[in-house]
Specification:
Elements: E1 10-12, E2 17-19, E3 24-28, H1 39-47, E4 52-58, E5 70-75, E6 79-80, E7 83-84, E8 98-104, E9 107-112, E10 117-122, E11 127-130, E12 135-140, E13 146-151, H2 161-166, E14 170-175, E15 178-183
The chain binds fructose -6-phosphate (F6R) and zinc ion (ZN).
Fructose -6-phosphate binds at residues 56, 71, 73, 87-90, 98, 136, 138, 150, 152, 156, 158.
Length: 187
């Protein structure tokens, strides 16, 4: 990763794109091993076409200490074993804060500090704030793609093992009147 000069980045809200664009990440069902409550349903979904669950496009600003990168995540609508499609979720190993701005669709921002859990509903225009030390996962709670902009310290890092080890406190299931939050039960 190399530093970039002062620049403007075009954020197309309707299209959910950044221009110029940096690296893009695509997460398929097979990339989400060990995260869904219903392991069999997850295996079946992997065998059954291994769908794209979410993608992350980045601005050219690199993930380097003291830089301020941005990215747009788009989570597809769907459920696996009744659990709403979601990001892997991570902790920033250096415990640094982050903001998300809802762009389109409806989502939830689940935060867990190892003891307490918080759930923030995200609609276009909502800024969700993650304080240092709160692991975070995003969930699509609607029936269209859910997109949000993330702005985070370049040196924050991503610890995915933390979530596999500690869980996220709650799980977001698809319920009769939308989202139903239930206690996290080991895989
Ligand atoms: C960066 C951040 C987001 C997520 C993205 C994908 O710190 O929180 O850009 O990285 O929403 O989620 P994960 O990284 O959990 O797969
Ligand atoms: Zn983060």
């Amino acid at each position: 990763a190399v530093p970039v000069p002062p620049m403007s980045i075009r954020f197309d809200q309707a299209a959910g794109t950044l221009s110029p664009e940096g690296p893009t990440l695509t997460r398929r069902m097979s990339d989400l091993e060990g995260l869904f409550r219903d392991h069999e349903a997850w295996e079946k979904a992997v065998a059954d076409g291994d769908p794209v669950v979410y993608s992350v496009i980045s601005s050219p600003v690199p993930e380097i200490d003291r830089e301020l990168p941005q990215s747009i995540t788009t989570i597809q609508p769907g459920t696996t074993g009744g659990e709403l499609w979601m990001t892997k979720g991570h902790q920033h190993p250096n415990h640094q804060g982050e903001i998300y701005l809802g762009i389109s669709g409806r989502g939830g921002l689940l935060m867990f500090d190892g003891t307490e859990t918080r759930w923030v509903e995200m609609t276009p225009g909502t800024i969700g704030y993650m304080p240092p030390g709160w692991a975070h996962r995003s969930v699509n709670i609607g029936d269209e793609p859910y997109s949000f902009l993330a702005v985070y310290p370049g040196g924050a890092g991503h610890d995915y093992g933390w979530v596999l080890e500690h869980g996220m406190g709650l799980r977001a299931l698809s319920g009769a009147d939308g989202v139903e939050l239930v206690d996290y039960v080991e895989g």
